[in-house]
Fold each of these.
Amino acid sequence: MDYGLDKKSNSLKTFNTMFIVVWLLIACFPFIWTFWGSFKVRADFFSRADWWYAITAFNTLLETGKSFTTEAYSGAWFEGEFWKASRNTIIVTVSVVSVSLFLGTLGAYALSRSTKNYAFWILIIALVFRAMPHITLVSGYLFPFFQLQIWGILPTTIVVLIAINQPFTLWLLYSFFKTVPKELDESALIDGCTYFQTFRHIIMPVMWPGVITAGLFSLMLAYNDFTVTALLLNQENHTMVPKIQSYLGTNQHEGNLMWAVSAVVSATAPLFLLVMFFQKQVISGLTAGAVKG
Amino acid sequence: MPNKSFFWFFIPTGLAMILFIGLPIISTGVQSFYAQHDQILKEVKKCDPFGCKVSVQIDQEATSKIREEKPLGKFNGFGTYVDRNHLATDQLSNFWNESNSAGEFLSKVGNLPFYKALIFTFTYCIIVTPCVLLLGFVIALSLNSISRKIRGALIFGTILPMIVTPLVGSLVLFWMVDAEGIIGANLQLLMNDPYLSVKSSKTLTWITIIIYGIWHHSPFAFVVFYAALQTVPQEPLEASIIDGASRFQRVKHIVLPHIYPVVTFVALISLMDNFRVFEPIIGFSAQGSAQSLSWLIYDNLVNEEVILFGSAAATSIMTIIGIAIILTPVLIRTWREFRTNR
């Protein structure tokens, strides 16, 4: 909206800038504060006496001799076995992203190239599935999984997350494939390619922008999931988010709350870096389907 | 695409969805009609030199045996749906007869677990959704008039609250507003009340969770509105400036009508998201004063003694019905769009 005619008054400009600054402060300060506090001891970050200790590091100096300490990190990563949780998260995330993209691209391509009525109904059903709260699905899983004795292990959770991920991936890639001209694959079909060959040689080379966007969202779903991982994995196999919750639960250990703080920072940092690099794709994915023309 | 090729392309994702989304919904439905077995009691005769006593004990062996034989539990029909922890029909009619005024009746109903959760869920939805729309729209408008060079960085800062998982987001806020955190401590100073604590007050807890909800969801509304603002045509805007329209008039008469379909889309999506609010309750450890429908299900599923499958399933089915009601307008819209596109 850069219209040359539009002259903004100075007061409006100042107000606008102030509003943005205040909003950014509200949006970002909690993360900056938690990051800062994760290098303090509990008595500073959760100070009963004076919140200013979190800045001056009064107790951190007393206890460790320096104003910054990585005690919380070493505690969580080694004693609290956060390394195991992050390893599990990596396994889950990588498998979910790769498999769900593989299934999703095939399915979405077929949906985008079909003119039949059933393709439309499949998309509607996918929309309904997408709206299902995950906790209601989990309440359906638990009983059969206990009976089949596949509860608590990583493969089960991976398969479940892949399935939960499908509706969104299908919709995202469906709207992406719609933008790929049909003439491309039609010419290949006329030249005698089968549908699979067309997909392999014509569509695959041009589908990467859409696939990267869909991949980012699958990654965020798998990485961020709490409901499924907390209820379908046993203690031993917990991924990062349920692990953070388990640090909160106990009041016996003084250090545990700081473990949770450092674990939150450790889990959030990679996500922020990722979004920093792929901001455009994240935004295009969020608006796909919402904004047309 | 011929049916046969379509089938082979679609079958992997189709199977995944049928097996792990379709079947679980059916399984939830079936489970909701069963309830866990009662414990089997037996009479035990104990004799000692002072005489014999008959006491009632739990027959562990028989109980675990029947649990193993019929793990689903006993058939309960709609029993779980109408029991005290769900729709509580008996209690409702009792309260109706006993209560003298509507207020008394409502306060009694508000203490039943299901209705308590329903009230919180509705309050959360009704307050958070419009606030998210408004805040998202204002941020989009004001970011849109800022120099393009720094916009990218500002957008990154804006979407941070949305990309973290709700549990982490609510924890980060909770640690600040807690009595020992930076905001909580300053609130105590400000209100001059050293015992003020978000955790102990029901109203404060609700307010905090609602503020969290607005903080977490606004970036999504912002992103969609921001993208929509880029598509607003320039000519009518310029014409209206020449005609002397004020800034507010331009937004009201040109920008808003143009992005109206997007507004309804965002409203419905965030309404659906807000309806399943769950993780912030754990993050803020607010179980005591705020419970949502999703939290009730979670609570049944992590029950220490016996997992209450039937109870969780009944709440799930009712949540699904709620989601279905909210979803209907979205479906109608998608259906219309699809028809016109072809």
Note: The radius of gyration of chain A is 24 Å.
Amino acid sequence: MLLQLNNIFKWVQQGGKRVFLLKDINLQVEEGEFISVMGPSGSGKSTLLNVLGMLDGFDEGEYHFMDESVHSLKEKHRAELYKQYIGFVFQAYHLIDELTVYENLEMPLLYKKIKGSERKALVADMLDRFSIVGKKDLFPTQLSGGQQQLVGVARALITKPKLILADEPTGNLNSKQGEEIMELFKKLNQDGVTIIQVTHSEKNAEYGSRIIHLLDGRKVEG
Amino acid sequence: MLKSYLKIGWRNLLKDKTFTALNIIGLSMAFGAAILLSMAAFFDLSFDNFHENGGHLFQVYTEQQYVEGPEAGTSQPTPFAHALKDEVPGVERISRVLEDGVLALHGENEIGIDALWVDSDFFEMFTFPVEKGSTDSFSQDLGTVVITPQAASKLFGTEDAVGETFRLLIGGEEKPFTVSAVTETQPQNTSLGFEMAIRFENNPEYLSTKEQWNAQYHEVYVQLQKAVSVAQFERNTQAFITQHYQEVIDRAKRDGAQADADGYFRSIKLLPISDIHFTNFKRGFANVVRTYPYFILGIAFLIIFIASVNFINMNMAKSASRLKEIGMRKALGARTQQLFYQFWSESFLIFTGALVIGIALSVSLLGSFKSIYRTGATLEVLLTPMTLVGGIFLVLVITVLVGGYPAILLSRFGTVQSLQGKLLTNGKNHVRNILMILQFSMAILLISGTLVFIGQIDYMRNKDLGYDKEQVISFPMNGKKDSYAALGLLRQELKGQPTIINVSAADSNLGTGRDGSQSSSAIGFDYKGRIVGTNFLVVDHQYIQTLGIQMVQGRSFESWADSTGVLINETMVKALQEKDPLSAQLDITGEFPSPVLGVVKDYHFQDLDRTIQPLTFFMSHDLALTYAYVKVAPGDMAKSFDLVAEAWSKIEPNAEFLGSYLDENMDRTFRREKETASLIASGSVIAIVLSCIGLFAMSMLVVTQRTKEIGIRKVVGAKVGTIALMLTKDFLKLVLYGFLIATPIAWWFLKQWLDNYANRISIHPGFFMAAGALVLLIAILTVGYKTIKAATQNPVKSLRTE
């Protein structure tokens, strides 16, 4: 088992009342799964993804990730953990505009303190794999949305994560570009990477092996 | 990693060129200005700090209690120094020092030399390194002198002057001397500057006053033994005082003077050599005032502060737009610490870059700075461990503040929120506002300071001094001839010239002439059972008319026949407590009583920071006149000036004519004030420019941040004026707060400063209103440009950007 959520609650205080963002979420994810999270706006999809990615905390419940109890870990160890095993792909790509494609790919490796020669090899490998060698010296703004997201996925993969968390990865793309990205995910999943994606599109959700439906912070199906 | 940080830092700088340029120009300018100002200040503070025995060197001064209060002075009588060394334990070395010009003759050369008349220990006490020759023979042989290379080349045409013989005109006689040593070029930061050092025993005063304890005319410097403390030494001098000054003390007691806090009527005190440059005795005690250099340092600090505030504010605002990047980095595994390093290294880069530009700027401007503000400042004076450590500390603190801010921000908001990247735009930014308020208050502080300084200088310059300063030329009678003979010849030469109205002379100058010297003589005498102190002035009988001083009672000197009588001023009448001053007989010299012929109206015969003192005028052929005064007709005064110069060069062909009009002399006496005022003025200009840069950048950012709001407001019908006002109002409020903070502080400081002047302007609220109005106006203009531009934009365009 890769991760397990037990009775996760997350809320904010609004006018003295608790507004639940996540309500009693239980979830088990095995290695190699491809899960799609669906639900209307405000149902807690992104929040769930952020909690899974340890970018955001929660108020109650337990979170186990590969034998580690995330809820009892300190911030620093949590960062170590997700740095090691989790890659993120965002709807708005979130590439750093001031860095070239090459440098954007290199950045996570810098934070993992990987040596220069190895870094070079890894980045070259990734550029090759995604066929973007020719674009390595361009800045994100010089790329199309699809290409940017390609770089985003490459960046998420470069640290060889076990889990990829994708928050509407095709939301800003046209259908052809979106399809390419989804095909890429499918291939990655076949190579053994666990993927959890949030999506609005039924079509994209179909790529997954399992679909989870959320409504008002509750898991209603899957 | 660092490379990556710097790379992204660099690209961020290039991305917004206006912003970066404003940032770096502001900072570099501030650094350049602050470095120059601190050079000037540290140069001033470094006065007399180069003597190896510095910690043990002191100037001796005396405090005497009179009925009117204490009086302090550094003048000592001839036998004082040796007696002090013999009778009071603890003196390692001692030297009398008299600063007095002397005429040196070598072949055809006749040159006025600034001489120091000193004792044999002088060169062992003070560190004036010798370049050629040795000071050994100076301490053994009265007939040798030590000379500076500059004076040597003036007199002998070569700096290699050891062994050269020449003559000095001493007491009207030419005496032969030999050069025993040539010093290195003197440091500029010395209070004991000289062109030539001559043994004290050669001074004309020396022989006539060898055993006299009542003729005080020179200073005394001591080097204490290492184990002796100042307090200990000062206590030990009481026996010495009782021995030599009993009479003075008895008289003080008889007149009803109050003893000082230690119960003494007279005490001998030591002033550390490093304090001499900053000390005045005007209030009856040694008052060490280092206000000016600290004032200037303060301005340098203010400028750096204002620029740093700009830097912090601008970068804080910028980091808001980089929140997404921060969030992203965090999602990719960056720790807060690493983010901190990233932002810190970035600001460090800009800061040090600006510092380097600032240093380059200050070095390139140093030459003109030195000549404009007359300072001997060099970059070296800043290279002390203290200033270096201080500078590094400052750079670190500010860059840490700037770099640390985004990191702190992040730890507060967490990754997810920062990825959404819209945090800083909502809510009030208190830190920014407080910093800007401080910035404005400093600008207002500096401007009001400048205004008051200029006001005071203007007041002093235009004050009616009680004599005619516009039409009178004064010059030192610096030749070989006897002064009365020279004065006679001068009258002869100028006779018949229609533009010359009057010619006279006295034994001191008014204001500071081109020879740079100022002197006054004072004496105390018994009058009806009390001691009365008075300044005295030896004059020629036409002095009062020449200077246009008014008589209030009696008559002026009319001819030499009046030399048995004296004239006094109104303050002297008060000091004598005499209802009918014309009946008074003053026995000043102790030889014969002199009748008071007349009373002159009080005039400012001393600097304007002093109140008018009692003054008595004498005529006596025994006392030399030193300055000639020529009153000229209004009209072509430059031509009259040339006429006088020509006449003097006929009388003393080898002497340099150092004449100037008295109003110029007066201007010279507050040169220091003028220099400080111009420093403060330039400081405030820079402060204003910097504040404007900051303001401009902030308005730029605020307008960008509120683009959407502006668009919406316009769509629902707001007018351009309303929007511009709304945007400007927030900044103007800050100016107002700044004004409220600055005014009381400025008022307090300026009051302190003005209290140093007996003749001063009163602080008018107008000064502060003017400063505040000026800053307000500048703020409106700066902010208005951006806001009106934003307000006039098509709302469709501004809404589209969201």
Note: The longest helix of chain B spans residues 336-373.
